[in-house]
Every structure is written in structure tokens, then in C-alpha cells.
Amino acid sequence: MFVELDLQSEVPIYKQLADQLIEGIASGKLAAGQPLPSVRALAADLGINLHTVNKAYQTLKQEGFLEIHRKKGVIVQPGPLPAADEAFLARLRRDLRPLAAEASARGLNEQELTELMQTLYRSIQNPPPEGGSSL
Amino acid sequence: MFVELDLQSEVPIYKQLADQLIEGIASGKLAAGQPLPSVRALAADLGINLHTVNKAYQTLKQEGFLEIHRKKGVIVQPGPLPAADEAFLARLRRDLRPLAAEASARGLNEQELTELMQTLYRSIQNPPPEGGSSL
Amino acid sequence: MFVELDLQSEVPIYKQLADQLIEGIASGKLAAGQPLPSVRALAADLGINLHTVNKAYQTLKQEGFLEIHRKKGVIVQPGPLPAADEAFLARLRRDLRPLAAEASARGLNEQELTELMQTLYRSIQNPPPEGGSSL
Amino acid sequence: MFVELDLQSEVPIYKQLADQLIEGIASGKLAAGQPLPSVRALAADLGINLHTVNKAYQTLKQEGFLEIHRKKGVIVQPGPLPAADEAFLARLRRDLRPLAAEASARGLNEQELTELMQTLYRSIQNPPPEGGSSL
DNA sequence: GTGGTCTAGACCACG
DNA sequence: GTGGTCTAGACCACC
């Protein structure tokens, strides 16, 4: 698995994991319908508790990025991914706003900020190759 | 004060307050050297706990956006504001990354995302007029 | 067989199967004494595990909806079907209660709920024709 | 609290709890905006684990029946309750269907079933008085 | 083997 | 004191 966790971070582990799985989906490293490791296997792999993995999986299932089957385990949403609906855009604006504000207060101009965003966006969709392709 | 808090939000109140003060600085609504209400006054005004206001002030002082004097009280940083140093940029990227990833996964393309960012940035620097100018 | 399984449902497969067999009995699509496919045949037909079919059959035998003979195989109860005894009614109330409560909380009025129930009941006893009559 | 749990039931404890809270909301025993016991208090009261109570609360928050605040704790949704949208109706039909089918197979006729449903619905909206009014 | 549930005890952020 | 997170270990249903 390509996931890298910072156990010291203030960002909850389950969220780091969920974020990186979403990023894997966005980049195509995780293809639609692709099976993910079982909660136990991933927990062992990452050296964290099974419940923490489970919380990440449940969160993503809830949002529609994953499906969880009785026996097949966990797979990437095989159908259409959740859309950028108004609820998501509102959340996105809410989260982006303080970041943009602080960037502005610190003297980052509009172009610098949008270019940073572009660079990020592109590095997500076209990630630098690294070790194994998926898991 | 122009601050509007959502007491039901999952975002901590002290962070909402700190964020909006930074936004006020970014927009110019809070000018360099300008005095801010005392912890007590602002807490009473907003109907929140003293400690919450204090935590927001201390956080902003720590980051260099405010100065706190025994006698003069709290004022907006009169000198140069904190710069967009590498530490800030790293934090910015870390926080922006999962947002960009989810936006991408949900089908928002690069242009839509950057335009959303631009719109936000401009609305911060040039906020719609509303009520009293500052406090 | 008219059975349709949703392998991704949170409802256990064996229960989906048992439920649809009961529905077949309720509708008359499965007549008293009628033979059912062998465990192996049905499992192959539905593409599921032997044990899953077996569990559904055993459950229904236990409740009195099926009979399982060594030689004749599995047949629909040829005699009187299990009655709506107090044990069943208690279970029915227990399962219905939270559904009625949530419907009420969500603003569905008594008439809407009972009409929904009637529609369901009728569609079960008089199902829309579809493909082969039974198996 | 008016909640009664059956620790031996096959129905998960957290679901029993969530169901009874919804029923409390439907009946008016839990009024909009009313505070609920803290997870710890309710867990102690019911003799179950705090995480089990938390799961029930989180589920209901997710569905829009509760709000969870940092300090105020948990309150009943003060605004409009979730509506009986198509997603709910689909779930309702899916859950009701096997119950109606078995009732039919066991010889309960349409009137008996709908009357049972009505009786339940009314007993929820107008529950028999019992001990303390709320918590 | 899988995920689902429950318990237990701990630490932390928040207010 | 509140909920949020994490860990740990256990049992169960399902397949």
C-alpha cells in the first residue's frame, strides 16, 4: 500500500488514511472496483489499530467512495464516484477560506496561490511514480 | 465586531475566531496597529467563554499577527506581518492537498477548482460592505 | 428460479433468499408440496455458496415453510403453513415498530404509511408477471 | 431515560438505542432542541459501554435527528427533522416487504396487517404514560 | 477468512 | 466535564 502516515501529526490517523485513499482514487492508482486490503491486513501493514482502519473505511463508504461487502471485503466504488454537489462545494469553500485568508495576510498574491493549487492538483492527478503501482 | 461564529460547527470556536481575525487583517478591515477588544469585552460581545477568546488571541500572537501588551491591550501587528515562509507553505500544501484530491475525485476539473479559489481570494481581499467597518 | 439477490446489500444473502422463498409461497408462485431445486443446483444457479443456500433452507424448514427429505429433496410445506401465532406477531411488532417510528418522525402520516403497506401487501399477493412462473 | 434495552437480543444494542431515541422524537417525548444525556452519563445509566452510546448518537447525528456540540453535548435536532425522501421510502419498502410477505404467508390478511400497523403508529405518537416524562 | 459489534481503558482538545 | 481519537482484545455472523 502506498499510504504514509504521520503518527505525530495533529491530523487524525483515520483521516490521513481516508485522505490518501481518496487521493489514490483521484490519481487512478486505485481503480474502480479494485479490492482494498482487509481492515486487519491494512492495520497490520500500517502498524495501527484495526478500528482506526475501519473508521477510515466506514467514512469513505458513507461518502460513497468505497463499497464494503460481507465476504469480498472492501472495494473502490465500481460505479460513478460521488459528485461535486453543492454540499461538497460549500464544505470546500468553508475549508478553503481560512487558508486563502492566511495566505493573503502573509503576502501570497492571487497568482502564487492559484499556481500552488494547480501544482498540487496536477501532482495528484499525475503522481510521480514510486515503488509498487498500487498495493 | 464583524465576527460571526457557528457554535454548532465542527470547527473549534477559537479557530473560527482566529480565522476571521486573520481574514479581517487580510482584507484591511483590521489595520496594522489597530486595537482589538479586550478578551473580556469580546467574549461578552460574542457570548463565548473567556478562555476561548484568549486562546484565539494567544494563537495569533504566537504566529505574529497580534501583539499583546499589558497596558495597551491587544493590537494588530503594527510591523510587518508574518511572511509566507516555507513552514507556512508546507502547512498550506498539507491542508490543501486532501481538498484538491477530493475535488478531483468528485470530478471538479483544474479550472473549476482554481476559479473557485480565485473567487474566494478576491472576496477576502475585497469583502462585500456590511454594517460597521470594524468594531 | 425467480430469486434476485443483491450481493452488495447489507442484508445477508441467506436471508434475502429465505425472504424471497417466503414471498414466493405467499404469492402462490410456490405451491404447497412443490419441489425446490437441490441445494447444489440452486447454489450453482444463483452463483453463491452451498452453505448459504443450505442455511436459507434450514431456516425455512425450522419455521415450517419447507420440508426436507432425504429422497424427495426439498419441497414447499404440503400441509398447513405456519400460523401467525403470538410469537410471530411479537416479532412482527418488534420489527415494525422502529420503521413506524422513523416514518412518523420523518413526517409520514398514518394514512401514507398504511397505504404504503397495503400497496406492498397487494404487490406480494398479486405480483406482476415476469419470465417463467416458478423455476 | 425511558430507554429499555434487551442485551440478549439479536438486534445490536446501539440500534435498539437509536431506534428508541427516534421513537422518543416521533412521540414528542424528546422535544426539538432538548438536551440528551452525555455519552458517559447515558452509558452509565444503561449499563453499557460509552462507545456503544456514542455509535447510536453518531448514527442519529449522521441521519439528521441529533446535533452534537462541543460543549453543550447532544441535543435533539432543533430545526426541521429529516424528511421522508425517496431514499427513506425505498429503505422502508425494502424492510417492510419481507415482513409483509411472511405475514401474508402466515395467513394474516390485509386488514389485519394494516390495523396492526395503525395500532403501532398510534401507540408511538401517543405513547402510554410511564414514570418520568423524559429523562 | 471477512466485517460487525461490544467492551475497556486511555489521552487529548475544547470550553 | 464534554466529545474525539486511538488502542486492545474479544465474540459473533457470514460465506
From TrEMBL, chains A, B, C, D:
Any coiled-coil regions, as ranges: none
InterPro entries: Tscrpt_reg_HTH_GntR (IPR000524), WH-like_DNA-bd_sf (IPR036388), WH_DNA-bd_sf (IPR036390)
Pfam families the UniProt entry points to: GntR (PF00392)
SUPFAM superfamilies associated with the record: Winged helix' DNA-binding domain (SSF46785)
Keyword Lipoprotein: no
Family matches, as Gene3D superfamilies: Winged helix-like DNA-binding domain superfamily/Winged helix DNA-binding domain
HTH gntR-type domain segment(s): 11-79
Keywords recorded for this protein, A-Z: DNA-binding, Transcription, Transcription regulation
Keyword Iron: no
GO MF term list: DNA binding; DNA-binding transcription factor activity
Name of the protein in question: GntR family transcriptional regulator
Annotated source species: Saccharibacillus brassicae
